[in-house]
């Protein structure tokens, strides 16, 4: 066994013969470089619908949870128009009307409607019966 002098902070490089290859690696063949494939030409696909048009709408009215929302939207080429509304947690209905086109971009107008509080008739005032005095 050889003795190697080491200075502080310096790690000597070990000779390659000091670390022989494991016997298990010798059983596998050497890797072979795969041939490089020719570059594939990328073609731009045109959309089948060059002038998109659609229209949709939906509403949700859930009496159990009080969830109430709606949306409607139409598209005619590059112009999109629509609106949606929902009840916020504080009871206010928020309605957003929007419009988008390639020239002006997306524009929206938000409206908040204060909820109408229904007057609940007050319960009739009931006077408590007088407490009888107990004699001790």
TrEMBL record:
UniProt cross-references to Pfam families, sorted A to Z: Chitin_bind_4
Keywords assigned: Cuticle
Protein's UniProt name: Larval cuticle protein A2B
Species this protein is from: Cryptotermes secundus
GO cellular component, one term: extracellular matrix
InterPro entries, alphabetized: CHIT_BIND_RR_consensus, Insect_cuticle, Insect_Cuticle_Struc_Prot
Gene Ontology MF terms in the entry: structural constituent of cuticle
